[in-house]
Design a protein that fits this description.
FAD/NAD(P)-binding domain, 370 residues, disordered C terminus, five-stranded parallel β-sheet, alpha/beta, D-Amino Acid Oxidase, Chain A, domain 2
Length: 370
């Protein structure tokens, strides 16, 4: 059986790896001319690491990551306690997106990836789907997986009128820079005033990842670096030790990534008989819960499990949709509770409640019915 996966990002590559291990011939199509990653670093929680363990690459992923803890401070530098939760509810692995993409591409097999080959349309038939690509190639497959991000072209055909929407007033700035002198000796995540969050964490290779986010922000007018610097006043009372300002000031302008946060609205369906969505293509959410990659990796694992269980593609995709749509409705409620927390203490409490639920909930093991 053959699967075509659109998108060679983290979710697309993980889906390809899961389906290959389930016995599928896999073709991953990527419109870019190379394997690359949009963004700097990302956090992988215990549930994502469990998926990579099952797929045989867990140790390799840990080797390119730095174990980190998600503890928040207020602008005065005080730790925001979260009584009732243990250390495991705060622990995740920080990895560089590009390095994880390269690792997964190698694991899938680069011969199974078509570069400069974007999706244009599909035709669905009773027993297969024909996928048309931008390089004038058409592929027949048993299943098509759209893992092509928030602006998914597969979603545009599967669920017309469901384009990604701006999360009004929500912007992010971030970068990874070297810290050869080792001047950053701790990780610090700060819940500030005026809807701002930010901080810095050390990576496994001696670099530092810094980030600044703001809800209800005025439209940025200056350079990305200038806009990030202007928000320091919300994150550090009296400037504190000036670490955030120093890190941003030391970052070349071209390395500062700035994004308007985009969201995918709740979808009425994620699948047809032979076409299905995964990752941000199905459920792009605000990055303030720091779990987008982890949740998409779970999508990939579930697809691999269901499609490999009985080889009945329509039943497997129906089962996947039945599990995932209500699951993500609950994720959205938990995410909203974090976003709308009235003060830093409540933000921290709702955040750890989300991470605890995410890493301890029972993973679905249902098989498609026949």
């Amino acid at each position: 059986m053959r699967a075509v996966v659109i998108g060679a990002g983290i979710v697309g590559l993980t889906t390809g790896l899961a389906l290959r291990r389930a016995g599928f011939e896999v073709v991953i199509c990527e419109r870019a001319p190379e394997i690359r990653a949009a963004g700097a670093s990302l956090g992988l929680w215990a549930n994502a690491l469990a998926v990579f363990d099952d797929l045989g690459v867990g140790e390799q992923v840990r080797n390119i990551g730095a174990p980190t803890e998600m503890h928040f401070h207020d602008p005065a530098g005080s730790l925001l306690d979260t009584p009732g939760y243990g250390p495991e509810d705060h622990q995740y692995l920080l990895v560089h997106r590009a390095k994880l993409n390269d690792l997964l591409a190698d694991a899938v097999g680069r011969d199974n990836i078509r570069l400069s080959s974007g999706f244009t349309a599909y035709e669905e038939h009773a027993d297969h789907v024909t996928v048309h690509l931008s390089d004038a190639v058409s592929l027949d497959a048993d299943v098509l997986v759209g893992a092509d991000g928030a602006h998914s072209a597969v979603r545009a055909q599967l669920v017309p009128g469901a384009a990604a929407q701006k999360h009004a007033g929500h912007y992010s700035w971030r970068a990874v820079i070297p810290d050869a002198a080792g001047t950053v000796t701790e990780d610090r995540l700060i819940l500030g005033t005026n809807g701002s969050r930010g901080g810095y964490v050390r990576t496994h290779d001696g670099s530092v990842y810094w980030l600044v986010n703001q809800f209800n922000s005025p439209s940025p007018m200056g350079s990305s670096k200038q806009e990030a610097l202007e928000r320091i006043v919300h994150l550090e009372d009296g400037g504190r030790d000036g670490t955030m300002a120093r890190l941003i000031a030391a970052t070349p302008e071209e390395r500062v990534l700035h994004h308007q946060v985009m969201l995918v609205p709740p979808l009425p369906h994620w699948a047809s008989r032979r076409v299905v969505l995964a990752g941000d293509a199905a459920h792009a959410m605000s990055p303030h819960i720091t779990a987008g990659a982890t949740l998409g990796i779970e999508d990939a694992a579930l697809l691999g499990h269901l499609l490999g269980a009985g080889r009945d593609v329509p039943a497997a995709l129906a089962a996947y949709e039945t599990v995932q749509i209500p699951h993500y409705a609950h994720v959205a409620r938990l995410s909203a509770a974090v976003e709308h927390a009235p003060a830093p203490q409540e933000f921290a409490r709702h955040y750890v409640a989300f991470s605890h639920w995410m890493i301890t909930r029972q993973q679905p093991t249902m098989r498609p019915s026949h």
